[in-house]
Amino acid sequence: MNRTTIIILDSVGVGALPDSKSYGDEGVNTLENIAKECGGINLPNLVELGLGNIDGIENIDKVSNPKGAYGKADEISKGKDTTTGHWEIVGLKIEEPFQTYPDGFPKHIIEKFEEKIGRKVLGNKVASGTEIIKELGEEHVKTGDPIVYTSADSVFQVAAHEDVISLEELYKICSIAREMLRGEDQVARVIARPFLGEVGNFTRTANRKDYSLKPFDKTVLDFAKEKGLDVIAVGKIEDIFDGQGVTEAAHTKSNMDGVDKTIEYLKGDSKGIIFTNLVDFDAKFGHRRNVEGYKEALEEFDKRMPEILESLKEDDLLIITADHGNDPTYKGTDHTREYIPILVYGKNVKSGVNLGIRKSFADIGATIADILDTKMPKNGESFKDIIL
Ligand SMILES: O=P(O)(O)O[C@H]1O[C@H](CO)[C@@H](O)[C@H]1O
Ligand SMILES: [Mn+2]
Ligand SMILES: [Mn+2]
């Protein structure tokens, strides 16, 4: 096999891990709780691959002959954010959780930032991004002061109206923050959160941009690149890795745009890795606790599955998975620590194989390294031999 595609359904977790309680997450299960609360969910194509056959899944139909291999994976890293999840998938283990700022950023950080950008800041607290622009957007428009906020994740988010602070300036401001927030004042990501519209009707635009730390060690992406293979990043993958190990990138406007671009790449003749992140599940529905919207987004993705599968070449392997949970039926607006589903399909992949409960997300990266015959990442156990 010469090409593997990973599609991350951002935040589509499949149930609490044994240690989820210590993260404040009890009884969380993004996929199943959506199905339960909506009285069912219609995902015929994912079900056909074996989604409902995954150990422990109850509210999704099971099939007698799944077309794919199926399983779920535990997270060995400490954390439940996007960076941690994605980095572990490609072979890293984050032992020290990224620093978070539940009381906002300390004075020395804010003062230094204000001095460097030549503007004061508003907010500086934990908030939901859509709520904080409702609350402080008007003042921002009047004063020109950007809104800084964080969450349960290690993030320094800067929201600004595109007509008040140009995108170019916002990105510059975020680069300044990125340079500052290392070492003792570390954050995993600085995120530009531009918005548009009138007071009372602000909406965020697709010009969001993430500034991540570089992975602290080599991943299977680096090993594939070093071997001369293509590593194509679709959606925010390039940002999550700060470009490390990526040979080509396409940013996207929405889940469906991400699916379109993935299909285009599948039809092309690259060799190596196509790595796609579909973030709407998380950003538009999980954090917004919009259960019905989340369900519809899943069904919308499922409808595209036949097209994705038809675009696979003889020698392709497809893995559909997630990076953490974000149970929209759960309290708060943060991620939830959960198992990630693993669905594997390929014309040459054995059907109906139960991958069971994998010890780490990194088993995915190890399998890809094994299949592409690159160096093996430090973590993870390959399941190549049971699927081929
Ligand atoms: O509430 P919004 O702005 O969508 O922010 C969410 O998006 C961030 C990055 O994914 C998370 O940390 C969470 O805070
Ligand atoms: Mn995520
Ligand atoms: Mn998120």
Automatic annotation (TrEMBL):
Broad enzyme group: isomerase
A single MF term (Gene Ontology): phosphopentomutase activity
Entry EC number(s): 5.4.2.7
Keywords: Cytoplasm, Isomerase, Manganese, Metal-binding
Cofactor: binding comment: Binds 2 manganese ions.
Places the protein is found: Cytoplasm
Keyword Manganese: yes
Protein name, UniProt field: Phosphopentomutase
Organism: Anaeromicrobium sediminis
Gene behind this protein: deoB
